[in-house]
User: What shape does this take?
Amino acid sequence: MTRSGRGDARRYVAVIDHPIIRPRRRVVVIAVSLAALLALAAPSIPAATAQGAADGTFSISPSRRDLVGRPPATLIPTRVSNTTKGTYDVRVFPVLLRQDLSGAFQFDESPRPLMAAGRILRVSASRFQLAPGQSRQVGLRWELLPLDARAAYIGVVFQGQRRVAGGGSVPVVGRLLSINFLRLPGRYHPNGRFTALRAIQSAPRKLRILARVKNTGDIVASPKRARLAIHDTAGRTVFKTGWKGDLVLPRAEREFPIDVRKVLPAGDYTAQAVMRFGARRRAKISTAFTLVSPNELPTPGLAIKDFAALGEVGRPAHITGQVQSTGTAPAKLALTLSLFRVTGGVAEAKPLAGRKLRFSGLQPGSTRSLDVDLTERMTPGDYRVVGEYTDAAGAPQELTSDFAATTRRGFLERLELFFKRNTPLIILVIAVLVIIAIGESTRRYRRRLRAKLIAGASEPAPAPNSHAPQDDRLDLNTATADQLAMVPGIGVNAAARIIAHRDEFGRFGSCAELTRIEGFDAERVVALEPYLRLYLVSRPPPPC
Amino acid sequence: MRTRITLLAMLVALIIAVPAAPASALSLSIETNATLAPFQPGQTATGSGTLTVAAPLGSWTLKVQDSTGAGFMAKAAAGCAGSDAQLTNRLSVTVTGSGVTSAGSKLIDGTATQVANGPLTVATILTTAYAQIIPASQTMLTGCAYTLTATYTLQ
Assistant: This one.
């Protein structure tokens, strides 16, 4: 019991070693029940503790307080016990509590928050020793509240370090955190809302829905009558369950995990969560999700293979690797690269250079190359490149690659290295250049030959025709087989057949006579007309 | 009248509860400190310890941090001339136990990281498995001891 010296405190003065209990009628029931439970449990607990911890324990009691009153007020002291066979060095200090998404309490150990917590809640002993089997009470006094605040959430850390000979590689310090909710009497407004709902893969083929709740009221409170339902695309309810709310500090957000204890087939679903939080009407939120196989969400996965760094004196560090998307959903990666100088095997605290890379839309199964320079011209020595990223599961990952900056290579060495590294590309480029050169050369040869032919054909014909025109066409009746073979559309064989026909039947009277030769149809002859002509005796040359 | 009943009930509750003080206790027992082996370059040194947690009033959460550094094992003050001042990689720990939700392997650093949580318990034994990757390039002279103080916080 705590006695406060002000106002209407006599209506509220109570210290209860249990989370929030507000309505008075419920207090009566719960207090009596709690007492009965504690009385029943008392004989069994020391026995169980003794079984579990043969060497005893370092413990505090009580570990939670919910106090309504006015400062200054003295709280029930905390009993710190050491039932082990070793001596403990104990340190006690108050801290300001905040809550993380998992609901666990956090505190900051920097000087200013520690000082603020110490002003609100004062402990009577901050450092002492506890011999084996000894216990000690630590007094707690609520001194004040921050300006304009009606409540404070203060933790008290009881840190115990056991004196152990030798110690091992990893000596352990134990801390026990007691939670203290301190508030003034008066009317409070518990209120809260959903801020998010999402499905996650808690384990292979195990689904979990996370309902995020924000306490928007002015007092610590918890969700009540909370339920979850999952509907398929036809609107049928395929799963429903209740979920248990727990304390959320004012202005804090907390995620409540709800396990889906049923295997749902692949498909599209909608999850809907409802709750009551304080005086607010029923709050509701829903989210859609897809299963790619029974109880399996599309899950991004990332892996970075062949992470390596190297560098030459006077040049930047070069980092290479392969970023692989190993999951069933598109992944993204934010990779921070830092270059450190290494002296005596230890990397310096401050990086010489750094760079942030982002990869997004990494499709499942795809791979992207990591090939970057860190813009620091290196001097001789040892270096370390550290790559930091968060994997698809949200866990921080770290890659390191140590190297020594090598002296810069000469031109020939670099040329050789370049050829060695890029042999396939170089072969490809050479092959393309050779093909282009051959094509160009062929085209030029053909152009030259054609020009020569045309020049030969345009020389005065030996035919006794004074009307011989000075055009570029080839005379069908005087052309040789070689000349005919160079005409587009007439090959060596066709030229031979034309000469044979001319030898057998005499001069052509018209180009149409070509159709009598095997392989020449009217269409082909029409196509040849721009290249051919006929000289007929004592007549001007007709059009072919 | 109702107020009096309330206060009376609380008084009774507290009087009854006094002998049962351990029921509301939060306790942590450190059975053994871990010793890592083989502690030499090019090896992954491993070791394990045990903790016992008792939280009979509700669910509990266990966090770990290196409250004096950033999670790198540091060499002892004596007998370590010529050795690297600290190891290249952070120490990792996995906390497991029956009926306990383990957060898996976690790298220890300067901020408290949740490693396990569980429902109310009168005594749950937890195994702490440590792993320290020591690169082959690490300079460690024989006889030089490296340590890291792991601070576990139970709430």
Summary: The helical segments of chain B are 2-17.
